[in-house]
Design brief:
Layout (H helix, E strand, L loop, with lengths): L4 H11 L4 H8 L3 H9 L7 H11 L3 H14 L24 H11 L9 E6 L6 H11 L8 E5 L10 H11 L11 H12 L5 E5 L4 H5 L9 E6 L10 E4 L5 H12 L1 H6 L1 H10 L4 H13 L5 H8 L2 H7 L1 E2 L2 E2 H10 L3 H9 L7 E2 L1 H8 L3 H13 L4 E4 L2 E3 L2 H14 L2 H23 L22 H10 L1 H13 L3 H10 L3 H4 L6 H15 L2 H17 L4 H18 L2 H15 L5 H21 L2 H17 L3 H16 L7 H21 L3 H15 L5 H17 L3 H17 L3 H27 L1
Parallel strand pairs: 1-4, 1-5, 2-3, 3-4
Antiparallel strand pairs: 6-7, 8-10, 9-10
InterPro entries: Cro/C1-type_HTH, Lambda_DNA-bd_dom_sf, P-loop_NTPase, TPR-like_helical_dom_sf, TPR_rpt
Protein name: Helix-turn-helix domain-containing protein
Organism: Nonomuraea roseola
């Protein structure tokens, strides 16, 4: 009787005078594996292992043959696989993209046999994203690494009754060559037999469409040179020791490439714009692209542009994406049926959200759930691929999934329930927006103690974050309130935004906000409110749109209204807003008009007893003087104004007066800079920054830092200048002002070039 593999290995190790540890070090085979072989626990190691041991033991040819034959004899006799059992499905010849994922799977496959544990990868993603296609494609590319077979089993995870683990094990055992009469009746015994078989075989097992972790866990081998690839709409995060591979939607270029591959290069080249439009309307979803391509193939007379026109109808797009038994709607419906009732209701009603992203509070309002229940529902939707979560606490639809949710809402909920949900959401958004905006109003601040909602607004920072994060949502609610004639509500919300708008100046929607509020005030017949909100609109037209002529006309219209009703204070503000609209112009007549406006405004504020408005008018007057070239006069004016504003007897809101002091000191710095008095300019810019720190407005602080940097360059304080420019650029970037950020970057680069030009001759010497 031939000697066992373990006996041969032990005798030749002793002959080589090697310990197990030394043989392990030389061969690269683990100490535990060598011990198992010599004890007979592992009787038929794989060819690579045998070769490594033979090389380390320096066996001759005859000894190598004997060791290989002993290993082959020790392996369990493999029965022939059942014909057609667990065969791979047909792959697609036009498979496109997923290069990164295929590379990752090959790298994992190459590790099989080198690790004690079997390799398992879980591919997860939304319906129609191409999980099965990727798995089958990978199996085709990995044929060389798995000579003992590649097997596929559909676990039917989206069926009402998924395939149970016991039946799955039985089918896999048959595919591996186990006769049906020899398959154990007990499921646990089946799992043990399955693991034992795979411990010695180089196989690839694809477990497609898994329902959940429990269905898969007993199908995963514990050890051996086998790789298991599991696909599921759920992430299967509960599986231990699994390499997770979540799939995202195709990039736009990949999507267009897939469509071109399906319809053919010649036809795609005839209408490249149409192909790009179809890919975009399909949301770069592989299933939708496959269906669209198949429809074009079956209709030779159609162009891609004509199909794009048909898909442009949002109400019919999802239903239009069907071809034969392929259907986007059907794929989504399988996931929808898996949801709990709260998640289904949340899914449907989230189709009402106007903004592209939303969180748990809005979901709770729409679906009439508690916040914790809403969070659970959202995570359930993410798990089944019906929502995406770009970052913690925020969620969004894929475009096609949103249309599917809208269809479910229309079919499953009466119109009245839909209207009530939308009204509940809009009311909540406008209420929170008002409370958050008032954090920045001098007469309000923190919310009333008895106010509560689904969000925390315990600080101005939280208020600002909510207003910015939900900006599109509350703006949509404001539009709806205007449409249905809730004019007082519109004015109230916009008024709450007055001071906050300075802190978020780059947001492009302020002209619309204040246009709606001024029109709402006019509809109410409230001319005082109309004048105030026309002034806010003038500010937005000046600073958000650079439409200076229109901004001046708007402010003068507000002035006319204020005069009609005898509102002297509002007249002053109209004149100030008109002045601001002139500052960006270069024509001297406009500058003279600005000085006239500020003088009239100061008189109005004095008459109205408005010290805060008066401070703003006097600051604007100093600015106008400098722009008219009367620089020394502007410096004297502004220095006197600073002293007056700092006098406790001046009165007014400390926050507003402090802001005026900062702005005036900045103007003093500008004056000294124009006079070439760089040190005095820098000193006053620094004082201005200190005053501004009480209530910093990013854009104003960035402008002052930029001016400070320029003064420091003139003073040859290069490092300090760089620091000022860097801070200014960061503030502009944070506020979304790319144009000014680019200008400051150019200043930084100029400083760097100048410094290099100065140091180069010294280094050369």
């Amino acid at each position: 009787m031939a000697e066992s593999f373990g006996g041969l290995l032990r005798s030749w190790r002793h002959a080589a005078q090697l310990t197990i540890e030394e043989l392990s070090h030389t061969s690269g085979v683990s100490v535990r594996a060598i011990g198992d072989m010599e004890r007979g626990t592992s009787r038929g190691p794989q060819r690579r292992t045998v070769e490594a041991l033979a090389e380390a033991l320096r066996l001759d040819d005859a000894q190598r043959v004997a060791l290989s034959e002993a290993a082959r004899a020790g392996r369990p006799r493999q029965e022939a696989p059942a014909p057609g059992a667990c065969e791979l499905p047909r792959g697609v010849g036009d498979f496109t993209g997923r290069t990164r994922e295929l590379r990752a799977l090959r790298e994992l496959a190459a590790r099989t046999g080198d690790e004690q544990a079997a390799v398992v990868a879980a591919v997860s993603g939304a319906a129609g994203i191409g999980k099965t296609a990727l798995a089958v494609r990978a199996a085709g590319q990995l044929d060389d690494l798995f000579p003992d077979g590649r097997f596929y089993l559909d676990l039917r995870g989206m069926d009402p009754i998924p395939l149970d683990s016991g039946t799955a094990l039985s089918r896999l055992l048959k595919a591996l060559g186990v006769a049906e009469r020899r398959i154990p009746a007990d499921e646990e015994d089946r799992a043990g037999r399955y693991r034992a078989l795979l411990r010695e075989r180089r196989c690839l097992i694809i477990l497609d469409n898994a329902a959940h972790e429990g269905q898969v866990r007993s199908l995963l081998p514990s050890a051996g040179p086998v790789m298991t690839l599991v696909t599921s709409r759920r992430p299967l995060a509960g599986l231990e020791g699994v390499h997770q591979l979540p799939l995202a939607h195709l990039a736009a270029e990949e999507a267009a490439a897939l469509l071109r591959a399906i319809v053919g290069a010649e036809r795609a080249a005839a209408d490249p714009d149409g192909v790009a439009q179809v890919a975009s309307l399909c949301g770069n979803l592989p299933l939708a692209l496959r269906i669209a391509g198949n429809r074009l193939q079956s209709r030779p007379g159609w162009t891609a542009g004509q199909l794009a026109a048909r898909l442009g109808d949002e109400g019919r797009r999802v239903e239009s994406l069907s071809a034969g038994d392929l259907s986007v709607a059907a794929a989504f419906a399988l996931s929808y049926r898996q949801l709990s009732l709260p998640a289904r209701q949340s899914f449907r009603r989230l189709a009402l959200a106007a903004a592209p992203e939303f969180g748990a509070p809005m979901t709770a309002v729409l679906a009439e759930l508690g916040r914790a229940e809403a969070e659970d529902a959202l995570e359930e939707l993410v798990d089944l691929g019906l929502l995406q979560s770009p970052y913690v606490g925020r969620y969004r639809f894929h475009d096609l999934v949103r249309l599917f949710a809208r269809a479910r809402l229309s079919e499953e909920e009466p119109v009245q329930a839909q209207r009530q949900a939308r009204r509940r959401m809009d009311d909540w958004l406008l209420e929170v927006a008002t409370v958050a905006g008032r954090w920045f109003e001098p007469d309000y601040g923190a919310p009333p103690q008895d106010w509560s909602s689904l969000v925390e607004l315990n600080s101005s920072q939280q208020a600002q974050e909510w207003l910015q994060t939900e900006g599109e949502a509350w703006l949509a609610a404001l539009r709806q309130a205007f449409r249905v004639g809730e004019h007082a509500r519109v004015v109230e919300v916009a008024e709450a935004m007055h001071w906050f708008s300075d802190l978020w100046m780059h947001w492009g929607h302020w002209p619309e906000v204040f246009d709606l509020s001024s029109r709402a005030a006019r509809a109410m017949g409230d001319r005082a409110q109309e004048a105030a909100h026309l002034n806010y609109l003038s500010w937005a037209q000046t600073y958000c749109q650079a439409r200076f002529d229109e901004a001046e006309a708007t402010a003068l219209r507000a002035l006319e209204l204020a005069r009609d009703i005898g509102d002297v204070r509002q007249q002053g503000w109209s004149l100030i807003y008109a002045t601001w609209s002139l500052w960006a112009r270069d024509d001297h007549p406009s500058k003279e008009s600005g000085l006239s406006y500020t003088r009239q405004a100061a008189e109005c504020f004095q008459q109205a007893g408005d010290t805060e408005g008066y401070a703003q008018a006097m600051t604007s007057m100093g600015h106008c003087l400098r722009r008219l070239g009367r620089v020394e006069e502007s410096v004297r004016h502004n220095l006197a104004l600073v002293d007056r504003l700092r006098d406790p007897a001046f009165g007014g809101s400390p926050a507003i007066v402090n802001q005026a002091v900062g702005a005036t000191l900045n103007l003093v710095g500008d004056g000294y800079f124009a006079l070439g008095r760089w040190q005095e300019a820098a000193d006053h810019y620094r004082q201005a920054l200190w005053e501004m720190s009480e209530r910093p407005i990013s854009r104003a602080v960035a402008a002052t830092l930029t001016s400070l940097g320029k003064a420091l360059v003139r003073l040859e304080q290069v490092e300090q200048a760089r620091e000022a420019f860097r801070e200014a650029m960061e503030l502009y970037e944070a506020s979304g002002d790319a144009v000014r950020a680019a200008r400051v970057l150019e200043l930084l680069e100029q400083v760097a070039r100048s410094a290099a030009a100065v140091t180069r001759p010294q280094n050369a010497g």
